[in-house]
């Protein structure tokens, strides 16, 4: 099954690029996102895509995980709406939002960065989890970086590097979805309990799969 999926995804990528397939380019899905190179020091753990829905997982030697996950957008889905859904679901799981920042992809698609802190159940070690959400007419792309809280600053440049080169696809001519507007400030209200669920974000388990699930957004 994995072999069949891999073959189909390669054919899909070839079709999207008109046959000009570049081995040095991580082009995930037909029109979801494009990333030339992983950050220095990260290795690719896995890559999967199916008709645009995609996931690219990477990991650093210090066990910091970096995931890029894509989901299909729905009619009426906006950055404001999906940001509200993401923050509410993570607050319910015990994550505390510490910072919210407006960002842009390399090709000018509006996004929002959310920085969370949490402590897994049964542990006293604080963790960081950063999610950058992009919403286009076709896709929802989430860039996720997670690990021990003390390592957050060490990997700040990695996230900046990805945002400086990632291209988000799926914008339709005449539509304004890709330009925002930005969601309101959630930092004053998104305060979860001190102990989070046992579900650490890492290349093996990306929480955004829950927060960006195909069910209708909360609220």
From TrEMBL:
Q: Which UniProt keywords apply?
A: Signal
For bias type Acidic residues, the affected ranges are 207-219
**Region spans: Disordered:** 179-219
Could you say which residues form the signal peptide? 1-27
Any keyword Signal? yes
Full protein name? Lipoprotein
Organism, scientific name: Plesiocystis pacifica SIR-1
Q: What is the lineage of its organism?
A: Bacteria, Pseudomonadati, Myxococcota, Polyangia, Nannocystales
